[in-house]
Amino acid sequence: MKFLLVFDFDHTIVDENSDTWIVKCAPKNKLPNGLRNSYQPGHWTEYMGRVFVYLGDNGVKEDEMKRTMTTIPFTAGMIDLLGFIGGNKEFFDCIIVSDSNTVFIDWILKAADFHKVFDEVFTNPAAFSSTGYLTVQNFHAHHCAKCPKNLCKRKVLKEFLDKQLERGVSYTQIVYIGDGGNDLCPVMFLKKDDIAMARQGYTLEKKISQLAQDLCPVECSVLVWSSATEIMSYLKVLIKE
């Protein structure tokens, strides 16, 4: 009996978008209009690359970025939930699939001592260059028309499950916890015994509702949450069954 927990990061584990939180490091806490307006749909990673160049050009160093990122608030109930999962790892494998980046997620999880809760983190690779600028790359290439070009979360989840099967690991149930539009693609991959936990009032919940109205509902069960304590209550029942 092993369960796979799949977490999104921004607006799910943390209550903000880590990529926009870093703007607090910019002069006057904002980006110039030209830079802000340079974002093109589906090309967020390239946009963030330009943001990091701007921060570097303005003398923002790694330690200042790290200090800023580790003040990002966790979502309500999330600290308790991650503590609970960490104490019950014999039941749960736990991964993050996120459109953030390795540097931000690593800083935030380590500062709160949650890095051991997660078995793997799948996100855009980031690193500081020799000149001290943060750089970020696309996670992978894929052919999914529904997803941003740098990351298809369904592909990540499918490849992870295939790799686990090769190791002889299969899961009783997958619990997918997320909020965003890019979480719909992996949710549509889930089977009827799995469960999608969509954050209340966010894009994922709205898209799942729309599919139900269009009479093509997702195959898995859906549970809407506003505090991570609701997720914890569900998991407690799961491991008692």
Automatic annotation (TrEMBL):
Signal peptide: none annotated. Mg(2+) binds at residues 8, 10, 179. Gene3D superfamilies: HAD superfamily/HAD-like. Keywords: Hydrolase, Magnesium, Metal-binding. Its cofactor is Mg(2+). It comes from the Eukaryota. The active site is at residues 8, 10. GO terms for molecular function: metal ion binding; phosphatase activity. Substrate binds at residues 19, 99. InterPro entries: HAD-like_sf, HAD_hydro_PyrdxlP_Pase-like, HAD_sf, Pase_PHOSPHO-typ. The keyword Ligase does not apply. Belongs to the HAD-like hydrolase superfamily. PHOSPHO family. This is PHOP2 phosphatase. It comes from Sula dactylatra (Masked booby).
